[in-house]
Design goal:
Length: 158
């Protein structure tokens, strides 16, 4: 009997073990080896021990490394997608750009977000945005007549 250590990324352990240990038990039966994963909080979380006959241990380790490679592709894709799906931070950062958050404007306060430069309401002359409810800014043309309700299918027949 031989025991060999193999380093497997801890993010793949759950997938290699499977639901209720089903996958790892199948591997242990198939290769006739014993596979031991480190306990949670271990100092070496990537250390996996495979015990058995020399040839079966080598085959099991090769298979575990192949599974790790396959699962790592999925893990990195998931992490990348999660980074893009994360909503942007209100104070800068977040989302696909990463960012560290905590963006501040020149006054030391939180960033104001979207700012329109040289907009009419920002002009030095005191211009401001028009008041949509003001009759002076938006006068009516002629008598106010309610628009006739028409349908795309023609007039209603009663």
């Amino acid at each position: 009997m031989v025991s060999q250590e193999v380093r497997l990324d801890p993010r793949t352990h759950a997938r290699i073990i499977g639901a209720r240990g089903k996958v790892v038990r199948k591997l242990m039966e198939e290769f006739k080896v014993d596979i031991r994963f480190p306990p949670p909080g271990s100092e070496e979380p990537d250390r996996v021990v495979v015990t058995g006959l020399p040839e079966t241990v080598d085959n099991a380790i090769d298979h575990l490394l192949n599974l790790e490679e396959e699962y790592m592709l999925s893990v990195t894709e998931t992490e990348t997608l999660a980074a893009y799906m994360k909503p942007p931070s209100r104070y800068g950062g977040g989302g696909a750009s990463g960012g560290g958050g905590g963006a501040e404007d020149s006054n030391g306060g939180p960033a104001k977000g979207f700012v329109v430069r040289d907009a009419p309401w920002n002009a030095a002359g005191g211009n401001k945005a028009p008041d949509m409810s003001s009759a002076e800014d938006f006068p009516t043309f002629g008598a106010s007549v309610a628009p006739k309700q028409t349908s795309a299918w023609g007039p209603k027949k009663f």
